[in-house]
Amino acid sequence: MHMTQEVVIIIAEDDEGHARLIEKSLKRVGLHNSIQRCTNGQEVIDFLFRRGSGPHRRSDTAYLLLLDIRMPMVDGVEALRQIKEDTSLRKLPVIMLTTTDDPREIERCHLLGCNSYIVKPVDFGKFAEAIAQLGLFVSLVQIPGINDEI
Predict the structure, then answer these.
(1) Which of 148, 78, 88 is nearest to 96 (CA)?
(2) Tell me, what's the pLDDT at 121?
(3) What string of DSSP letters covers 10-78?
(4) What is the CATH number of domain 7-140?
(5) Fewest CB within 10 A of the end CB: N or C in the chain?
(6) Global pTM value
(7) How does DSSP classify residue 95?
């Protein structure tokens, strides 16, 4: 029995304009998944690790995280490190979003376990195109649920 599960897309992006552009671009390619928005790295960690008073992830839901690197409170690289070190969260697909194409930073994110890396071009058309390709990726791959029983 093959079941396709709704994937909730977590957008961790402190720039309101970029976040709206990501959402619009996802919808334009036919992805109408639920979106959970986080405006800093601490919100992402609290959501995924079920800490604090804000919203928390559900056990029966698959998530995909679009994680900006440069964010207040906790940066994306540190958030990625904490997520990938956790046995129940390490299968969560994480796509890094950043304005830098510094090869050392890209390498560091891959070593920590990110699944992909998208450089946010200043050209918004290219950025929208990158998100559209990401949308196609999301619609084609099976995203594992998070197993809390480990």
Answers:
(1) 78
(2) 62
(3) EEE-S-HHHHHHHHHHHHHTT----EEEESSHHHHHHHHHT-SSS----TT-EEEEEEESS-SSS-HHH
(4) 3.40.50.2300
(5) N
(6) 0.83
(7) E
